[in-house]
Each structure stands twice: as structure tokens, then as C-alpha cells.
Write a structure and sequence with these properties.
single chain, 22 strands
């Protein structure tokens, strides 16, 4: 029986060797962020064996604060696999966003323009729910798996016997890691999925010369805060101000998430709570509207960049999410791009085990085709809403700001431009994006 034909549970005991323990699964997923956790659930429901390896401990994974806006397709995908119970209970459906300039605020109604919505639901909450579901199901989810190394990502002949006596042979990949108990394990698998983020090991495992990188580093950053105060708005506010960009988002009916444009080399120590609220009041202020202040529970500065690799696949290794691409957060695309990759790759893996490799062969091209459209939208939003640092020319700075005002005025007065914004913000299709 070949490894691709074996759909049984992972061999936890494995086969002892001189260098450690050898175990087997069908898909090894590296990284227990939302992409890796979601992919595991989808594969498990399809009867495909998997193991998720996460270098950090569980508390760290559950404590990471990230994005908080889900596209329509992200919501629909979670519902399709029965992973939306907490989302239904705590997610906040939004019908659009506000664009603001010079004290004028305009609503872009996604539901009216495209029939689609977005949902505010923190990535932290999504990870909590996905981890809880994995634990309920008894999934092969390994926290504190250190020194993870994709030791073989090209096709190789392999023979082994699982703990249940099943003979496995065929073309396989492998991942080596150290378990929490100190045991060194080699995990043989059909495929490796790198869901381990920008700083992960999987992208580094591509052979030299097989991967090119396209990147843009922005000359501004976001100072983000969480505050224990009810949101002062029904939909997200994106504001262009002469002092810099500001945004009002939320995490729940009692927690607000707000952002300020700052210099990337700024120090969070320079920003007292009082200074933050004063800047937010100035940049978000409009006549007849009040920004309610409250205790700030978390604040940090987030550098901004765009990053895309030339391919998401080499041999039996596939990349999803931040391992292969990142976007500035302005367009709320980071988490949704990862989920889109997962949707596409999960479908391709299911088709593979049913005998069709077309999806795996086309995964990288399709995912990157969608990603570059997402990059375009994210950069368009970012450039429109952020004050560009002066380059020594007051005339150039004045020109840039007036051009941005013209862009926002066009968008807020053109039905066609609003449809385009709404279509992209609420999300391009996940599968068969071309």
C-alpha cells in the first residue's frame, strides 16, 4: 500500500531508530496559526491524516493579537465546515466602511453595492475556537515542537512499517522536530504545508535559486491600541488627515481597536495614553460626532510592508499565508489571504487523494494570481489614506496630499468606484479566482 493510499491515523508510537523515532502521516502542517489550524480541520473532515507542528507554546499562540475583519468568503468557509459557532455568537456583521477626509465622512455600503458584507471577528478569537475544536476532536496538534526542519521536500522512495503493522512505501517527504519531551522525531509524510509565517522555516527550506522575492517596505507604520470602551461607530472609519492616517475599528461591542499613522522608527514609549487619544480625537474628529475614550489595555507599533514570493510550491512543500506573502493591513487582507490559500490547497489535496493532481499542479499559480490582485488593492488603499513623509520638498508634499484628497473625493462621489472598492474589500472569490 502506498502512503497516498493510507488514510489511517498517525502512528504515534512510531518506529524507533538510532537517531530517534520515525512516525508517519499524510500531511505535515507546520504552524498553528489560523491557516494551519483551519487546514487541519478541513483535511480531517475529508478523512486525510495530518499533524500540526507549532514551535511556540499554547499560551503564546492563544495570546497573539492580529487582524480582525473577515471577508464574506472567509465567513462562508468557516460555516461550511461547522467552525463558525463562536463567530455567530460574537462576530459583528458590517455592511460597509466610512471614508473620511478633512472632517467629511462618507459611507460606502457594501451590502447595497454588491450584496456582500464583512464580519469583525478577531483572529485571536478564531484561533481560540479552532484550537478548542482540535482538542475536542483529539487532533494531532503538537505545541512546543522545536528545531523543526523540513529535511526532505523532494520526492524520494521510502519504505516503513507503522505501529499497527501497515507497510508504507512510495514517494514521501519528511519533517524532523524535537517533541516537548525531548524526543527527536522524523515525521514522514506525503506533503508538507508551511503555515509558519514570514519568519518560519518552510520558506527557508526552498533550495537556493528556486525562489524570488518581490517586496516593498513602507516609510510609515501603525500605532495600534486596544481599549476597553464601546466602539464610537457602527462601521469601520478610515481617515486621511494632514497629521497622518487614523482608523477606528473594534473587536466587540465593548472593545475598540484604533490605529494612528506614525514613523516606523518611533518608540511606543513616546506615546502616552493621553497623547494617543488626543491624536485620535484630532484625526477622526467630525462635527456632531464624539470619540469616546477608555482604558488602553494594549498598544504597539506595527511596521508595514508588502512581500510576495515567486512560487508557493517546491516538490512536496507548499506555502500558505504569511509564509508566502504579506500585505499592509489597510485593506484587511492578511488573514483572508491565508484562508483563501487554505481553501484552494485543501481542495487540491482532497482531489489528489481522489486521484486528480491538477489542483496541486495549479495551486501556486492560482493562489498568486489572486494574491497580486489583493496586493494591488491593499497598496491602493494604503497610498490613498496615508500621508507620505516629506522628501525635502514642501511642494511635493502639498501635491501628494491634494492628489489624495482628489482620489477620495472621486471614490466617494462615483458609484462605479464605490462598487470596485466594495467588491475588493468584501473579497474576491477564494477558489478558481481566475
Amino acid at each position: 500500500m502506498t502512503s497516498d493510499e493510507s488514510h489511517g491515523q498517525s502512528a504515534e508510537a512510531g518506529e524507533s531508530t538510532a537517531t530517534g523515532v520515525r512516525q508517519s502521516t499524510q500531511v505535515a502542517i507546520i504552524g498553528a496559526g489560523p491557516a494551519g489550524l483551519l487546514l487541519g480541520h478541513i483535511l480531517g473532515q475529508a478523512g486525510i491524516d495530518y499533524r500540526i507542528l507549532e514551535a511556540r507554546d499554547k499560551d503564546y499562540v492563544l495570546g497573539r493579537i492580529r487582524a480582525g475583519v473577515l471577508e464574506q468568503d472567509s465567513v462562508d468557509l468557516l460555516g461550511k465546515y461547522g467552525l463558525d459557532a463562536d463567530l455567530k455568537a460574537n462576530g459583528l456583521t458590517h455592511h460597509g466602511i466610512y471614508l473620511q477626509h478633512e472632517g467629511e465622512r462618507h459611507h460606502i455600503d457594501f451590502a447595497e453595492l454588491t450584496g456582500r458584507t464583512v464580519t469583525v471577528y478577531g483572529q485571536q478569537a478564531l484561533v481560540h475556537h479552532l484550537v478548542a475544536e482540535h482538542e475536542r476532536l483529539g487532533s494531532q496538534l503538537v505545541f512546543e515542537a522545536t528545531d523543526v526542519q523540513p529535511t526532505q521536500i523532494e520526492s524520494t522512495q521510502f519504505e516503513s512499517t507503522q505501529a499497527d503493522g501497515t507497510q508504507i512505501d512510495g514517494e514521501r517527504a519528511s519533517v524532523a522536530y524535537t517533541a516537548p519531551n525531548g524526543e527527536r522525531i522524523t515525521l514522514d509524510c506525503d506533503y508538507i504545508v508551511g503555515a509558519d509565517g514570514y519568519h518560519g522555516v518552510c520558506r527557508q527550506a526552498f533550495p537556493e535559486g528556486t525562489l524570488e522575492v518581490a517586496e516593498r517596505v513602507y516609510d510609515f507604520a501603525w500605532l495600534g491600541i486596544l481599549a476597553d470602551v464601546a466602539p464610537s461607530t457602527d462601521d469601520l472609519i478610515y481617515a486621511l488627515h494632514r497629521d497622518g492616517f487614523a482608523m477606528h475599528s473594534m473587536r466587540s461591542t465593548t472593545v475598540s481597536r484604533l490605529y494612528l499613522q506614525v514613523s516606523p522608527d518611533d518608540d511606543i514609549a513616546n506615546w502616552s495614553d493621553e497623547r494617543i487619544w488626543e491624536a485620535l480625537q484630532t484625526r477622526l474628529g467630525t462635527e456632531g460626532w464624539t470619540l469616546t475614550e477608555g482604558p488602553i489595555t494594549e498598544k504597539s507599533i506595527l511596521p508595514m510592508r508588502s512581500f510576495v514570493v515567486s512560487t508557493l510550491n517546491y516538490g512536496r512543500l507548499y506555502l500558505v499565508g504569511d509564509a508566502g506573502h504579506i500585505v499592509p493591513p489597510t485593506g484587511a487582507k492578511g488573514l483572508n489571504s491565508a484562508i483563501a490559500d487554505v481553501a484552494l490547497l485543501a481542495e487540491a489535496l482532497q482531489a489528489h487523494y481522489a486521484g486528480d493532481d491538477t489542483g496541486l499542479e495549479q495551486y501556486s499559480d492560482k493562489a498568486l494570481d489572486r494574491q497580486w490582485k489583493v496586493q494591488h488593492f491593499s497598496q491602493w488603499m494604503t497610498d490613498m489614506l496615508h500621508v507620505h513623509p516629506a522628501d525635502g520638498s514642501a511642494e511635493q508634499s502639498a501635491f501628494d496630499f491634494q492628489r489624495q484628497l482628489g482620489q477620495i473625493r472621486y471614490v466617494t462621489s462615483s458609484h462605479a468606484a464605490q462598487v470596485s472598492l466594495a467588491e475588493q474589500y468584501a473579497g474576491l472569490p477564494f477558489v478558481d479566482a481566475r
